[in-house]
Each structure stands twice: as C-alpha cells, then as structure tokens.
Specification:
By secondary structure, the protein is an alpha/beta fold. The protein has two domains: 2-174 and 358-369, Glycogen Phosphorylase B (Rossmann fold, 3-Layer(aba) Sandwich), CATH 3.40.50.2000; 187-347, 3-Layer(aba) Sandwich (Rossmann fold). It has helices at residues 11-26, 49-54, 72-93, 105-116, 135-145, 154-162, 177-183, 189-196, 219-231, 249-261, 273-283, 293-296, 328-338, 341-347, 359-369, and strands at residues 2-8, 30-37, 61-63, 97-101, 121-124, 148-151, 170-172, 203-208, 236-241, 266-269, 286-289, 305-308, 321-324.
Length: 386
C-alpha cells in the first residue's frame, strides 16, 4: 500500500480536502497519514484540529509552526519552524507521497521539506492566478516542486504545462469544494439559525475578507471602507467569517470584533465549519469580500459574489461574480445592484466554470493507479514551437 501523507493547515483547506481524505482512508490500495499544522493547532483560530478529529479522522502528525505574529518577519519565522517540523515528521512517517493543496506558506514549508527528503508531491489547485497576494509566487513554486498536478479548469491546466510540467502528469478535475456542496446534507434554515444563535432577516450577507498581502498597509483601510458601507445598509443581517493567519490579518480581527460588538444585526465566527459555512451561503443573498470560495463554490448556489479589490484578480470567474473596488460608495452600489431584477434573472442561468463535482474520486483513483517509481526526476516540458 502507498503511504499518502496529506497536509492541512487551515479550516478552508481542510474543507476542500475532506472527501479526498475520506477516499484515501477507504481505499484498499492507500494508507492515509494525516498531518495538521498552522491554524488548526491555534486556539486563536478555533483549534480546528479538534473538528478534524470529531469528523472521525485520526491525526498522525502535528507540526507546530504558527507564531502569534502577523508581520512579514513573524510569518517568515513560522515558515522556518515548519521546515524543521516537517523535516522531522517526514523522516518519522516515511510517506510515499505528500498531498498539498493551494498556495499558503504552511504548505510551502511542507513542500520544501518533502523536496529535500526526496518524497514525490501531489498538488491541488495549481495554475491559478491571484495577482494581489503573496500566494501567487508560492503557488507556482509549489507546481515546480510537485510531480502530480490536479487542476480546476482547462485554463489552469495549460498554465501548469506552460511552467514546464508534463501534460501526462496534469489532470483537470474541477474545484474540490464543489464535492462538499454535492455530498453534504445542508442544514434547514431553522437548523442553521439555531446552530449559529442568530436569526436571519429580510436581507442577509456573508462577509469573508482577507488582507491583500502584496499591498502594504491596506488591510485596515479596505476593511474600514467595507464596514462603513455595511453600516449604511438597511434591513440587513450580516455574518462575518474571520480572516486567515496572513500578514496584517489580526488588524481585521480587531476591526470586525469592534464592529460586531456594537451592531446587533451582525455576528462573527472564527470557524463555521464546512456544513454551516455552505448552509450559510444557501440562505444569504450574496457573499461579499475577497475569498476564493466566492469564485469557486458560491456560483454553484447561483448566488452573487461581490469580489472586492485585487486579491483574486486573475482567477477564472462565473457570471455571478461582480468585481468592485475597495471603496465605500462602490461597495454600497454593487450590493444594491445584485438585488436588481435583471441581475437576479441572470443568476438563474449561471454555470460554474469549476465544474459540477467528482474531483475527489478522480484524484483518489489517479493516486491509486500511478506508479511513483522514478517520478522524482522530471524533464522540463517545452511547449511546441509555432
């Protein structure tokens, strides 16, 4: 049996990996090793390792790496701790394959350790572009360190191949998050309201906003513009999900805490979990912010996404996604615009460019069937000349 070590460092990433973990665990050909790190092990971010265990998964390894700092120096030091921790754990676990998703600094540390340990890497959601964040160069670096690539659209597949990866090792499987939408039995509205201790109103919005990490000192300013716009909305209930452990993320924590403490029509969660988060999308009128889920998962609900600023600039977008500058008046106008009859009619025919599910099963099948012998030595694939 192949020993497959899956790395997860954030609540959102774990949600996307859930059905891959389930498939590996149930496979007769694969042996799951689950390694948790980063925000999962931090009480400040909800200690979500406990949620993973409540879901029935055994955690084989815990790599403590997250310092209580969101400065650039603090995150660089966290990466250093991660590199040390993953190096030790890979020596102990001796996996045959490392599985990583996305573009965060936690998985970059894991990939670097795996590279020096001569362990092949399977990478999910490569080839995507997010021009406003540090994740962009990290994602493409992970592509070059990886050996099996599972991407979400044909455009992203072409980009991974453009980076020199063999087409035979790049599979277009769609967005992993859509499997949760298809497989989970979402909560009824009354169940959802009870689960969060908050009643929905005439109008409802879900806010999920993160720092634009390639911009300096804009996080607080942009969040203040968003909060000022929300403060002027009438008959609107607002649910916030807190940002990830990114540069300047704690500034946003503070602003959201201050706002929700003085506004009874709002509530905030460090971690909602996939079931409540997806149920929330089902019952709100729109998702507002700059999270990748607004582009990848929300269109499957035929709900609008108001995509603020440059964090997701460059990603493939459905017709339900409306781009908006981080300006109070622009945000207000855009929110009002998604309620207009013509836009609501447009939503009925929206198709999600990230597919309609099945990515997890496809990935597990490929991992089962792929011979890893000799896979570490990659030949750079040059694009055919015109």
């Amino acid at each position: 049996m192949k020993k497959v070590c899956v790395i997860t460092g954030t609540r959102a990433e774990y949600g996307l990996l859930t059905w891959v973990l389930d498939g590996i665990e149930k496979s007769s050909k694969l042996d799951l090793q689950l390694c948790v790190t980063g925000m999962h092990l931090s009480p400040e971010f909800g200690m979500t390792a406990l949620e993973i265990e409540r879901d029935g998964f055994s955690i084989d390894s815990k790599v403590e790496m997250l310092l209580s700092s969101d400065t650039s120096s603090g995150i660089a030091k966290s990466m250093g701790l991660g590199l040390i921790g993953f190096g030790d754990e890979f020596q102990r676990l001796k996996p045959d394959l490392i599985v990583l998703l996305g573009d965060r600094f936690e998985v970059f540390a894991a990939a670097a350790a795996a590279t020096f340990a001569r362990i092949p890497i399977a990478h999910f959601h490569g080839g995507e572009t997010t021009e406003g964040v540090i994740d962009e160069p990290i994602r493409h670096s992970l592509t070059k360190m990886s050996h099996l690539h599972f991407v979400a659209t044909d455009e992203y597949r072409k980009r991974v191949i453009q980076l020199g990866e063999s087409p035979e090792r790049v599979w277009c499987v769609g967005g992993l998050g859509i499997d949760n939408i298809k497989k989970l039995e979402l909560l009824q509205k009354s169940e959802f309201e009870k689960s969060i201790g908050f009643s929905l109103g005439k109008r409802n919005l879900l806010i999920t906003f993160h720092p634009v990490t390639l911009e300096e000192n804009t996080a607080s300013e942009q969040m203040e513009e968003l909060l000022a716009a929300i403060n002027e909305l009438k008959d609107t209930k607002v649910i916030f999900t807190m940002p990830n452990a990114d540069t300047d993320g704690r500034q946003l924590f503070r602003l959201i805490d201050e706002f929700t403490s003085t506004n009874e029509n709002t509530i905030a969660f460090t971690s909602m979990g996939q079931l409540r988060y997806l149920s929330c999308i089902k019952y709100v009128d729109a998702v507002v912010g700059n999270s990748s889920s607004g582009l990848i998962e929300v269109p499957s609900f035929k709900k609008p996404t108001i995509n603020i600023g440059d964090r997701q600039r460059g990603r493939v977008k459905a017709g339900s996604v409306v781009d908006c500058p981080p300006d109070k008046e622009a945000i207000k106008r855009t929110i009002e615009g998604v309620y207009e009859t013509c836009f609501q009619e447009k939503l009925k025919t929206v198709e999600n460019p990230y597919g309609d599910g099945g990515a997890s099963e496809y990935i597990v099948k490929v991992i089962e069937q792929t011979d890893l012998t000799g896979i570490l030595k990659k030949r750079f694939y040059d694009l055919p000349s015109d």
